[in-house]
Amino acid sequence: MSFLSPSAPAPSSVMSMLGTKCIDKNYKNTQWYWSRGKQPCKSIGDFDSPIVEEQMISANHIIFSFQIPIPKDGYPLDYSRWQQNLIAMLHLDILYDDEDEVAPDAVMTLDARLGYSNRGDPEGQWTEYASSVEQRHLDCCIEQKKPGYMYNCSHVPLFELGSLHHDFYLLNVRLPVDMLDTSEKTGMNTKLGHINDMWVAFIHQNGGFTKVWVSLKTIFFPIIVAIMVWFWRRISQLSRPPALLEYMLMVLGAALTLLNCPLEYLTLAFDCPWMTVVSDIRQGLFYASLLSFWLIFAGEHLMDDIERNRIRVYWRHLSAVLGGCLCLFIFDMCERGVQLRNPFYSIWATEIGTNLALAFIILAGVCAGLYFCFLSYMIWKVFMNISSKRQSLPAMSSARRLHYEGIIYRFKVLMLATLLCAAMTVIGFILGQVSEGQWTWDENIKLEYTSGFFTGVYGMWNIYTFALICLYAPSHKRWPKDQNTQSSTGEEIEFSRLATEPSEMSSLTAFTKKSATD
Amino acid sequence: MRFGWRREVAGWHLLTGVALLLLCATISATGKKAREPKWWSIAKIADPSNLISNHIKSNSLTDHYLDPAIHRILRKKQRRLVRENPGVLVAIAKGARHAVHECKHQFRNRRWNCSTSSSNRSKRLFGKIVSRACRETAFLYALTSAAVTHTVTRACTEGSIDSCNCDYRTEGPSGLDWEWGGCSDNIDFGDNFSRLFVDAGEKGRDPRFPMNLHNNEVGRLHVKSEMRKECKCHGMSGSCTVKTCWWRLPYFRRVGDALKDRFDGASRVSVKNAGNARASNNRQRNRRRKNTRRRRRKSFALLKPYNPDHKPPSKKDLVYLEDSPDFCVRDRKLGIKGTHGRECNKTSIGVDGCDLMCCGREYHTRVIEVHERCSCTFQWCCVVKCKTCKYKKTTHICS
């Protein structure tokens, strides 16, 4: 996977745009204002322009227009469907004025409309995609309170599109104020200070990254499906019903298959705004099943001779996973789910929404903490049992010894593999964050690392799952019944679990046994 | 011991004097006095809004399209650049105006207050002071170069120049590039364009050539280093597994402030061997873009600190060759207006204080009545309601 990464570009790129200030004394919210092409809007360079005074322009007559993408190299660019999604972040340039400061809790009201157009459409024909009146908190600070200096305002999210289906987009944003002659005084957009410019950064996924990503999925999808079919056939050949661990492996495989399914091909033909929500859910399902698998795997290797093999025994542990995932799911539906209806919606825009979102995230965090406590406790217990069993191993009968050795061996293998994968993921993530944070203009060298990290991690977990299913599949070899077990009557009772197993051990255990007997 | 050391210093002064004399000799030897780049006066001629209307009127962008006044002040290479990048002329004109405005702001409290000639008759914008290779000149070069970088980048971001490059690093069909990996930041274009356009205004024969190139580069570098990074997390459920960052263009005041700081700490240099610069420049003239980098490095290597004990100037330091005049009295030869009639601050101990501003001369104190707007209410963008207040103000004016 990583071999693909040098050719893959960064996962996403940005087109930052400065709004053109269109003016129209007779603003109508059915009309579009664009800055390039035939019949562009009437615009002004800045608000000090003499036109403003001549024509008595007020805030209600000003429309910030963003026509994307911007032409480059003298060539009108258009968005490709490979570019998947579009996120817009807005920031304002506000000049300091000692008589007109920005209120610390200023709220801006945006009247935003998003339209689209395609190649082949007549020029100037824009179709409305979404429109909304939204409120956003303005968070501004300033170092030197001197006239002529600029506030340092943080950016606010404007909209998120789950699919980039059309070629051209046009965004019209207004910051309306109450008309001076009306009696209604809502105080809308009054404490924003001296707005000078409006910038919007449009983030989209890179087509190259999507291509590499989708091809990875296309490769892994059939492989994992094939291995699952093989695994299930092995299991159905057994005389016993499948064990819990085997069910878990199937669930893990199914979740990964769902994640691998290259649904992205659909976006090339259809408008699928639900794609980000679906991919969030798919990822969430995979993480949930992976975390549950680790829990159950540790539980099934406790070797404390308690009959488990049922999902109900693990309800306490699994509820942590489920609770966490549910919280994230609800949060996701509140944010990205609502965005399906209104792309301009943001849960962070309102006080209640922010608190709600934070509550869900904190709850999910608590669940994650609980989960890790459970898991570490279980792993610790397994290791305690292993060391106690180790000491009594020489005294055991050979079948019993082999059984425990097999368990210890396969637990350790998984432990090692899991730790390795997790460590690599975490290290990669940290390196990515650090390299992103240190990137400045002064050093000009930029290592493109993120897409390598993503593809690498994705491939690694695929291989991990593949290996798990492969190695923990039951052996098809019949294991000869050990005669000794019958003779040693003293261990009969403790053997109840073991007695059914010797003939149907996993291939890995069988392999260890074989090498042990050799 | 101490005495001997002092004598050494005196010796240095003597050397300085000799070096200055030699420098003057070389300047007079070339026959021409160094003048400010002609393109600067675009700030005077062209009203950006006029240029826009001209731009819309004529679809064909030939040489004839250019206003004759502009045609006169641009060199051949600059004209070509303007022709190849429609819309860029407006940005350059705006940039020149920003530079003038910023310079006046930064130097409003100094003896030299960045006075510009407004009359159309004189060819120069900042006057004859530029003919002297002093700190002020260094600042002007850096500021104008920074302003062009800034406004061209801004124009790209606004979408008013079509020919901004998508990416300088990879070459290939532009459509594919964009779809595959997006576009690089517009500052890359602004920076490169400014390098081509502004540096084209310099002549290799000029002994000040390395200094000017260096200061131009300092200006561009400051625009870049004042950029601020913004990031957005948009991974699974909005987590930071995927983070995208972009650069925000600084407000030009920040660049002006940074350059003013550099002005205060500018380093005096001398040019190692001006003859070499000319030769290398001529040799490389044909190979264009690749060379700008090499040319820059070469010009940089030609500068050495005037005082050998000092560190060589860094990439971000402004450099100058001659000491500044004191700007106290009117000097026609250098186009200095002097500080006669300037307002000063009686309580300040800085350069705007009356002692320093008036160069020890006397100053008059007057009390005048000022009408100013007060207790204003604003409504963005443009509605201001104010009262007019009258109050008395004491001013001090240098005689």
Automatic annotation (TrEMBL), chain A:
Q: Specify the Wntless GOLD domain's residue ranges.
A: 20-205
The Gene Ontology terms for molecular function here are: Wnt-protein binding
Give one Pfam family.
WLS-like_TM
Task: List the InterPro entries hit by this protein, alphabetically.
Answer: WLS-like_TM, WLS_GOLD, Wntless
Listed under subunit, the entry gives: Interacts with wg; in the Golgi. Interacts with Vps35, a component of the retromer complex; wls stability is regulated by Vps35.
The entry's protein name is Protein wntless
Transmembrane segments annotated in the record for this chain: 212-232, 244-265, 285-302, 314-331, 356-380, 413-432, 452-473
Predominant location category = endoplasmic reticulum
What is one cellular component GO term in this UniProt entry? endosome membrane
Membrane topology, record value: Multi-pass membrane protein
Taxonomic classification, please?
Eukaryota, Metazoa, Ecdysozoa, Arthropoda, Crustacea
Which stretches does the entry tag as region Disordered?
499-518
Organism, as annotated: Penaeus vannamei
**Keywords (A to Z) from UniProt:** Cell projection, Developmental protein, Golgi apparatus, Membrane, Postsynaptic cell membrane, Synapse, Transmembrane, Transmembrane helix, Wnt signaling pathway
Q: Which domain of life is it from?
A: Eukaryota
The record's subcellular locations are:
Endoplasmic reticulum membrane; Endosome membrane; Golgi apparatus membrane; Postsynaptic cell membrane
Q: Where along the chain is composition biased (Polar residues)? A: 503-518
Q: Where is the Wntless-like transmembrane domain?
A: 206-476
Return the similarity comment: Belongs to the wntless family.
Does the keyword Transmembrane helix feature in the UniProt annotation?
yes
GO annotation terms (biological process): intracellular protein transport; Wnt protein secretion; Wnt signaling pathway
Function (record text) = A segment polarity gene required for wingless (wg)-dependent patterning processes, acting in both wg-sending cells and wg-target cells. In non-neuronal cells wls directs wg secretion. The wls traffic loop encompasses the Golgi, the cell surface, an endocytic compartment and a retrograde route leading back to the Golgi, and involves clathrin-mediated endocytosis and the retromer complex (a conserved protein complex consisting of Vps35 and Vps26). In neuronal cells (the larval motorneuron NMJ), the wg signal moves across the synapse via the release of wls-containing exosome-like vesicles.
Automatic annotation (TrEMBL), chain B:
Q: Which CDD domains match?
A: Wnt_Wnt1
Its predominant location is: secreted
| Keyword match tRNA processing | no
- Write out the annotated subcellular location: Secreted, Extracellular space, Extracellular matrix
Q: Where is the composition biased (Low complexity)?
A: 272-283
Q: Which GO terms describe its cellular component?
A: extracellular space
Extract the SMART domains matched here.
WNT1
Query: Would I find rRNA processing among this entry's keywords?
Result: no
Q: Which residues form a coiled coil?
A: none
Annotated signal sequence range: 1-29
Chain intervals with Basic residues compositional bias = 284-297
For this chain, one GO molecular function annotation is: frizzled binding
Where is region (Disordered) located?
Answer: 270-297
Lineage, top-rank taxon, reads Eukaryota
- Pfam families (alphabetical): wnt
Q: Which GO terms describe its biological process?
A: canonical Wnt signaling pathway; cell fate commitment; cell morphogenesis; muscle organ development; neuron differentiation
Q: What does this protein do?
A: Ligand for members of the frizzled family of seven transmembrane receptors.
Question: Of which family is this protein a member?
Answer: Belongs to the Wnt family.
Stated name of the protein: Protein Wnt
**Per the UniProt entry, what species is this protein from, by scientific name?**
Penaeus vannamei
| Organism taxonomic ancestry | Eukaryota, Metazoa, Ecdysozoa, Arthropoda, Crustacea
